[in-house]
Write a structure and sequence with these properties.
By secondary structure, this protein is an alpha/beta fold. The protein has twelve helices and eleven strands. It folds into two domains: 232 residues, NAD(P)-binding Rossmann-like Domain (Rossmann fold), CATH 3.40.50.720; 95 residues, UDP-galactose 4-epimerase, domain 1, CATH 3.90.25.10. The strands form three sheets. The protein has a seven-stranded parallel sheet with strand order 3-2-1-4-5-6-10, sandwiched between helices. A two-stranded parallel ribbon has the order 7-9. Bound molecules: nicotinamide-adenine-dinucleotide (NAD) and 2'deoxy-thymidine-5'-diphospho-alpha-D-glucose. Nicotinamide-adenine-dinucleotide binds next to α1, α4, β5 and β7.
């Protein structure tokens, strides 16, 4: 791993991963290739801009010529692919961009890697790797009592987002099977932590609660997700990159499955404790049940025995501590929060998704 192309590195998980990689690996050059959509924020890594091991390149994974030239110019040997449209609600309101980015973008990257690594043989084959970052949502939804998903569970994606991620996973697998492209895939559960765009449940609830705004809980709030602190995800991806078996997929999860309502209540209680502004206490009274997400998956649960047994990974953060740290992070980064709120797009999204609910 010398010249690493990280796609989507200006987003939530990608930016945390770049930080993690620069802390962990010394002899490395990282190219952060990101289109800077509404979800991409160069500020997430502003403090790294002077680091000679790090370079930002504004680019679109659907642009074959650009992807091709970057891979060649920097002799990229490792691709860690985060770039995606990542929000389920947006995929319900407008699925097209999800197909463009998640399916066509992944295809474009795979083809560029194939051309450079497999057809031209410039780099030794055992030194190259395509790592694809995917989601537990490809497995669908669990009924009460059904066992957790393993790496062998058949795909059954329900939202346009999940379907586009499933399609991209299949494309990666097919490039491995047909052309011999060295790849690994990770399917991870819901991440939370610093720098998450506040359209997702946890940061949205934190910011709304800080402002005394309603806290929208979809349906009955009894949907269940598995939650993982983003740093634990980054550590798992790094382990898979360095020690994972080529052609393998690994499930990653936090081994906790609270109902959404309980997550929201916990955030309220944390803010009651640590927010010095007493105006909105108790925060639980801001909770509002709103119209459910169409096709809403009821329950997720990941069986993570494979990555634990093969690579010795397990999450370091408990959900309670991770949530407390995350609330503290949002309270202590008012400039970051303000910069997101100033983006015209953010208010527009809140109107589009919540006004008519
Ligand atoms: P995010 O929405 O915060 O960031 C996505 C990034 O990709 C942004 O910086 C954006 O500018 C960039 N991007 C989008 N389209 C692009 C394009 N065409 N070309 C180049 N860059 C583009 O997403 P995230 O939450 O950090 O998720 C990252 C990856 O992890 C995604 O593939 C997602 O499916 C997967 N994942 C996310 C979670 C989660 O809970 N957030 C869990 C499991 C898997
Ligand atoms: O499971 C992994 C996935 O987790 C990732 O692949 C996605 O990229 C990521 O966005 C996330 O998807 P979810 O749909 O699970 O995340 P979100 O934060 O949007 O919602 C979490 C749960 O909270 C879900 O059951 C819907 C609910 N919810 C969400 C929002 C935004 C609410 O009740 N109210 C809300 O306002």
């Amino acid at each position: 791993m010398k010249n690493v192309l990280v796609t989507g590195g200006a987003g939530f998980i990608g930016s945390n991963f770049i930080r993690y990689l620069l802390r962990t690996e010394t002899n490395i050059r990282i190219l952060n290739f990101d289109a800077l959509t509404y979800a991409g924020n160069r500020e997430n890594l502003a403090d790294l801009e002077g680091d000679p091991r790090y370079r930002f390149i504004q680019g679109n994974i659907c642009d074959a010529a650009q992807v091709d030239s970057v891979i060649r110019e920097y002799q990229v040997d490792t691709i860690v692919h985060f770039a995606a449209e990542s929000h389920v609600d947006r995929s319900i309101l407008g699925p097209r961009q999800f197909i463009e980015t998640n399916v066509m973008g992944t295809f474009t990257l795979l083809d560029a890697a194939r051309n450079y690594w497999l057809k031209e043989n410039v780099l030794p084959l055992d030194s190259v790797r395509f790592h694809h970052v995917s989601t537990d949502e490809v497995f669908g939804s669990l009924k009460p009592g059904e066992p957790a998903w393993t790496e062998e569970t058949p795909y059954a994606p329900n939202s346009p987002y999940a379907a586009s991620k499933a399609a991209s996973d299949h494309l990666v697998r097919s490039y491995g099977h047909t052309y011999g492209l060295p790849y690994t895939i990770t399917n991870c559960s819901n991440n939370y932590g610093p720098y998450q765009f506040p359209e997702k449940l946890i940061p949205l609830i934190i910011l709304n609660a800080m402002d005394g705004k309603p806290l929208p809980v979809y349906g009955d709030g009894q949907q269940v997700r598995d939650w993982l602190h983003v740093e634990d995800h980054c550590e798992a991806i790094h382990l898979v990159l360095t020690k994972g078996k080529i052609g393998s997929t690994y499930n990653i999860g936090g081994e906790n499955q609270p109902a959404n309502l309980s997550i929201v209540e916990t955030i309220c209680d944390i803010l009651d404790e640590i927010d010095s502004n007493p105006a909105h206490k108790p925060h639980r009274r801001l909770i509002q049940f709103v119209k459910d997400r169409p096709g809403h998956d009821r329950r997720y649960d990941m069986d993570t025995r494979k990555i634990r047994a093969e690579l010795g990974w397990s999450p370091r953060h408990t959900l309670d501590q991770g949530l407390l740290d995350t609330v503290r992070w949002y309270l202590s980064h008012p400039e970051w929060v303000a910069s997101i709120r100033q983006k015209h797009e953010y208010e527009g999204w809140l109107d589009a998704n919540y006004k008519l609910r």
